[in-house]
Amino acid sequence: MARTTKEIASFADAVRDIPDGSVVAFGGFAYPGTPFNLVGALADQGAKNLTLVANSTGGAAQPRLPDIGLLVERGQVRKVICAFTAATRASDVLPFTKYYESGQVEAELVPQGTLAERLRAAGAGIPAFYTPTAVGTELAAGRETRFFHGREYLIEYALPLDYAFVRAFRADTAGNLQFRRSQRNFNPIMAMAAKMTIAEVEEPIMPAGAIDPDEVHTSGIFVQRVVHIPPAPVGIWPGKRAPRAGAKS
Amino acid sequence: MSTGLNRQQIADRLAQAFEDDWIVNLGVGMPTLCSNTPIGDRGIIYHAENGVIGYGGVLPDGEEDLHLVNAGGQHVALNPGAAIVNHADSFAIIRSGRIDVTVLGIYEVAANGDFANWKVAGAKGGGIGGAMDLAACAKRVFVILEHTTRDGKPRLLRQCALPVTARGVVTLVATNLGLFEPKGEGFLLREIAPGVSVDQIRAATGAEVIVPENLPVIEVLAG
Fold it and tell me: Cys-Cys with A116: which of A65, A99, B88, B202 at CB 3.0–4.6 Å?
């Protein structure tokens, strides 16, 4: 049967079939591009034993937001792969920290650029690569290194995903995505690395052809499900005032 | 209150070392203060790990664009000529050596150019963020820190005690007491903070301090 639309009516429907034990990535860097609605839906859906991939472990925002810290606190998470397992300021203690230190959750700490490139490699069909990042640190202990042109590099492996949860500004029924400002961050490369990408989208889903092909940031080839964000319960700007009129240019 | 320069003044000294048209990455915390220094229009492009290239000042509440943050999560303006790229491209810019300088807030720096800023003593977790990529790949690594810990222990050392972020990469060190260059055997004191003595610096440093015959005093910017 020919494809019709990738639009899904609700977040619950979009995440219903995610099995226990899945590897799920979450885009976002600070607030922009974070798929809060999909996190909330996965918390409600209840899948367990998950491996999460994200820049940070969440839980820092006040008041609390439905970020991946929520899935950790609900006991749905086995392991987190991220660039921060502690806050930037050593004095800040994240909710994740207590689960990690007590051994309830595992973590793999990865330099941010290496995390990005491992995702890009997975999406590009490249199994491994060498990087100068982390050479000479405890992260490199016992791992393969190799010299190229007189400089030492560390091997890193692609990070393929079962699911990527992303937040986009616009999408069409073919799954093409457009991001706005720093909302882009990890979202395009996570979409490429995943077997299935689910996007929550701020503007109503547009008919195929409504986004100029030159303005598509992520091809619909990498995106299987798109859901328009309704005003409630989480909405587009949880914990924030709506942007001023005209801010979305 | 610590001796010598305050946090903004330390940042000011490093920002004055930026050269025309440099591509600069400022770490979270004290380094972001470098963007407050009035160094004039020098064509500097500020790069943030999240792919924002050419950002400007922090915007006041009500004027911010909620879709736009810098690497510290602050809502910032975009300067003319700005561009947005994804995270892999942002780190391609870093890894390929196109960042002229990264300024990082740190815990410790050693005379051999090693430094530590991602994990504190006894912690199971840490926060690496983009620091290891920046430290390994930027053309220059400037670090900024208080000269001693809250208990008065030196943070400029012969060797780092904490797990390092990168080895042998630091080119310039700014503290409340002065401006230093790691020279292998010790730290060359390039400039001294006003009202601070060389003896004070020696007592607060865990490595040799090399003092040149002609020692300029750091000029504190007005305001």
Answer: B88
